């Protein structure tokens, strides 16, 4: 599950973060494998500006589910800071910490605006390749006595590369890293990116074969009609998200203007148990993804928990198709 810690109807930060903890605990009870947090800055309706802090809190309030960043936006931070934070977290919660790395800044408007507020250089994104290499070196076992030191160095901190393009997929493959594709950001490039990742994959220090995750908006309910009704309330949020219009009034989804964006929601799965089952099965077969990252913006807590329950239930017997089935171009 990927969590945005959204505020609804004038909620404060405390209420939004409390719901995040509840969602993580519910996901753990249902058998979800990972609970990740996004990083966004200067976005009025989101409270996830400091993922490592929330991650540490959620890890302390759960027992087994893996928690991680989806992702830590590397242009916003120094490689040493991220290595120190996640190395420390890995020492506190052994075998439960994931580190997803992103190239974006996670803010509205231009990257330059966010970088300026974070007191980062305007060309921070241009240094991504070098900064990623430095971060990976900081997390691995030191090769010499004078290697830079970071707490938790050499511990198990799986590093994922996040992306929404063939370029990021190719980089993940060449570095031998697991790859997570943001279908909710760029649905049109999903299949080419998955193909590029597997084509360019080279076994690395921690992975001998490719491992890919894709995101999907899923709203599940007891009936198709009920799920579609919930989607009607969620759609305005998604419309604003894709258009990157983030006014302060956007905390109330119902008050936001509605517009049809079928191309951006082409991978949304909305419906009752059988509809959701067939949708997930089709997406897994089409992409040959190893994992699916669930995203939802259901405001009602009971309805959200029921949606997570249905998804967990139908995934128990998903037919992935033939293991060597090629990725379908769509």
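^ structure tokens above, recovered residues below v
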């Amino acid at each position: 599950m990927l969590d945005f810690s959204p505020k609804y109807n004038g909620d404060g930060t405390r209420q939004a973060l409390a719901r995040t903890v509840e969602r993580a605990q519910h996901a753990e009870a249902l058998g979800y494998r990972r609970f990740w947090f996004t990083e966004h800055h200067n976005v009025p309706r989101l409270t996830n500006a400091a993922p490592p802090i929330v991650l540490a809190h959620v890890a302390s309030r759960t027992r087994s589910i893996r928690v991680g960043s989806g992702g830590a936006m590397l242009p916003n931070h120094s490689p040493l800071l991220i290595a120190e934070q996640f190395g420390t977290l890995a020492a506190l919660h052994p075998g439960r910490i994931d580190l997803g790395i992103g190239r974006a800044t996670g803010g509205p408007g231009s990257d330059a605006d966010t970088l300026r507020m974070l007191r980062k250089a305007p060309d921070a994104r241009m240094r991504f390749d070098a900064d990623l290499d430095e971060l990976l070196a900081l997390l691995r076992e030191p090769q010499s006595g004078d290697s830079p030191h970071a707490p938790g160095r050499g511990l198990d901190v799986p590093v994922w590369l996040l992306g929404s393009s063939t370029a990021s997929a190719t980089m993940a493959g060449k570095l031998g890293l697991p790859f997570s594709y943001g279908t909710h950001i760029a649905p049109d490039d999903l299949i080419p990116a998955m193909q590029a990742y597997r084509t360019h994959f080279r076994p690395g220090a921690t992975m001998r074969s490719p491992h890919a995750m894709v995101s999907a908006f899923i709203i599940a309910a007891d009936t198709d009609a009920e799920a579609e009704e919930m989607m009607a309330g969620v759609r305005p949020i998604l419309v604003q998200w894709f258009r990157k219009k983030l006014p302060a009034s956007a905390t109330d989804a119902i008050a936001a203007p509605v517009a049809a964006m079928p191309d951006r929601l082409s991978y949304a799965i909305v419906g009752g148990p059988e509809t959701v089952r067939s949708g997930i099965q089709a997406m897994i077969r089409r992409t040959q993804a190893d994992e699916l990252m669930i995203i939802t913006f259901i405001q009602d807590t009971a309805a959200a928990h029921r949606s997570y329950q249905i998804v967990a239930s139908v995934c128990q017997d998903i037919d992935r198709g033939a293991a060597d089935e090629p990725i379908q171009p769509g």
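The chain has one domain: 2-317.
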